[in-house]
Amino acid sequence: MASLGKQNTIDPVQLAELRARMVAVQLRQRGIRDERVLAAMGKVPRENFLAPEFARQAYADNPIPIGEGQTISQPYMVAAMVEALEVQPSDRILEVGTGTGYEAAVLGELGAEVWTVERHARLADKARTILGEMNYLTVHVVCGDGSLGLARHAPFDKILVAAGAPSAPPSLIAQLAEGGRLAVPVGNRLEQQLQVVRKVGGEIVTSSHVLCCFVPLVGSEGWRT
Fold it and tell me: Options 3.30.70.100, 2.60.40.420, 3.40.50.150, 3.60.130.10; which CATH number does 4-212 get?
């Protein structure tokens, strides 16, 4: 299966201009300050992770459907969550909710080794294909229940949950390394608030950030259906 981005016929120069404008207007002007995050999002071609009929909307200021009732997140929310993690090149990162792999690619651009979990097999296969064709060799796609994390690869320096949870899943907190950060949208099915959970001296410290709206985190330690 070819990567989705190879099927669109939009002028690549135009796409590059739209990507640069997205970084300048949707991210920088809204307060994203981490230059490494801005550079990574200015490099990753979001259109590669979308079906051809959505390619022209790749840099719109909103989520976009990717099938299976899931979406690729709004660019600002991707940037806000990644910035909140304070990613370092040496980090081992767990992402929950791969989708088609866009956010995992952004994390890969920051030099981290990433394990990303997607519960829908079709999306996991698609993400694995796209990320492989784009040579993101430090991003590993796993199909499974992301709310339980990946204990066999723990501990993780950073954990990012790209779905709304009723609370921060206990398994993910347990798999967080000392000094690590977990970014997770917490709330009801209609609205959440981004929470950053830190493990400091064995204690859990939680801070609240922007309001957001994600698809539900479905799993044993998320929403059941």
Answer: 3.40.50.150
